[in-house]
Amino acid sequence: MNVLKKLSNSAPGLLLCLVAGGVTGAVAEGPSTFAWVVGQLYLAVVNMAAVPLLVVATFFGLRQVLALPRPAVRVGTILAVAVVLVALAAAGGTMLGLLATPGAQLSHEARSQLGTLVLNSTGSGGEVPMTLFAGSAADALPSRIGFALNDIVPDNFYRVLAQGHTLGILTGTILFGMAFAALSREQSGMLTNVFEGIYRALEHVIEYANLLIPVLAFGTAAHLTMHTQRATVLAMGSFLLDFIGLALLLCVVAIAVMARIARLPFLRVLADLKAPLLVGLTSGSATAPIPHTIEAMSVRLGFSRGVVELVVPLGSVFVRAGSALYFALATVFVANLYDRPIGPSDIVLIAVGSTVAAILSSGQNGLGTVGYAAVVLSALQLPVEAAGALFIAIDLICDGPRNVLSLVSTCAVVALVSAGLPSERVAPADLMPLDPRGAVLTFSFSRAQLALATGCALMVASLIVLMGIGVGAR
């Protein structure tokens, strides 16, 4: 247990698990499959606990934010900042794609490998013969882009809970949370205590489940090694390097902004965010880092807990900066691959389309995200099915950086909106100032205790006097 806890919070340890998993996946299929199955069980437990945690955290966050001055302006600011950050990620991905031109200068071997992959996918009825986290490409490419009305405003809250429709869950949660926030403290005191107990219990469930992150990292790397061809990864290398590099750069910028607002050193902020970043990078889940992120942003970095508890759960669903960057770079890559020139109007179209696609993909993770690239690809009249086959093959590599960028963007929203609010940072015990005069002991007595103590003192004094008289008489 202690070993898993240390590994789950250690960047070098998780890196070692990834390397070991990659090596094991290349030589031993049995242990790799077992570790991957355990990782899937971990994800199932985390997602099971994360949805009700998201609901309860949103309740508390709404109540606290609505109690702040000018709540309507603050909520509007949250939404505006979130959309701006997603749009900036899409614009950054578009500009980097134009400068780095991924997919434009591929070797003959790389083009041949990608062509073979596309032909195999179209020759098997539109399905890619590859087993990652979904059964096929058809599972990852949605048949329709957009949402039905029942997906956004459900007529049965329990139905969307059972089916896992995140948008419907959040709609019901927000409506109930606003009504909950309108109640007085006396009216909602018992319900608040129940929610608080549920909140802490779910935090413990996810905390214990996160001990299996090293196993998940090992199994994911092994599964990737077994089911992804090395030639495909090399052929898509230009896209992978640009995507991971720009995601890292944007994360550094966002953390620097948080450090400036919190008035803390950059490395201190990075250290406080280490746990949620590691969970987001290795778990492949946008909701697994929620408990760690709430603790880091409010207790350690001092941002308003009400804003944190509202923005972090909602941001895990809606602030899709990583997806926006992914869609923009993927579109530029496919355009270069098919020698499709990109003009000034296309640049705007890619940036806006990637932002829209990222918002439409809210609530999707993993391979479910890939299909929404069709929003931008279709606008530029690029082949959607062929591009889907290419990016499904490497999505397992992109999933971690995509989640991390979205997580850091959510934290940046919290920092920007919390500017000017009182800090809630808890000073570490080892940094608390010591009283130079030393510890002071104080005694307090009741009247009966004081009378008893006085009687005992008089009795002792009398005995001492009598003993002195006896000794003197000898």
What brief labels describe this structure?
single chain; 474 residues; mainly alpha; 24 helices
Explain what this protein looks like in three dimensions.
This protein has 474 residues and is mainly alpha-helical. Helices cover 76% and strands 0% of the residues. It has 24 helices and no strands. The longest helix has 38 residues, at 29-66. The chain is globular, with a radius of gyration of 29 Å. Mean pLDDT is 78; it is low at 124-146 and 429-442.
Q: Characterize the biggest β-sheet.
A: none
> What portion of residues is helical?
over 70%
Mean pLDDT over all positions = 78
- What overall form do the CA principal axes indicate? globular
Tally of extended strands? Answer: 0
Question: What would you say about this model in short?
Answer:
The protein contains 24 helices and no strands. Helix 3 packs parallel to helix 9 (166-182), helix 4 runs parallel beside helix 18 and helix 13 (237-262) runs parallel beside helix 23 (395-418). Mean pLDDT is 78; it is low at 124-146 and 429-442.
Question: Any chance you could write out the topology, listing elements then pairs?
Answer:
Layout: H1 2-8, H2 11-27, H3 29-66, H4 71-100, H5 108-123, H6 137-140, H7 149-152, H8 157-163, H9 166-182, H10 185-209, H11 213-227, H12 230-235, H13 237-262, H14 266-272, H15 274-283, H16 290-300, H17 305-318, H18 321-337, H19 344-360, H20 367-370, H21 374-379, H22 384-392, H23 395-418, H24 447-473
Helix pairs in contact: 2-3, 2-11, 3-9, 3-10, 3-11, 3-17, 4-13, 4-18, 4-19, 4-23, 5-22, 13-14, 13-18, 13-23, 15-23, 16-17, 17-23, 18-19, 18-23
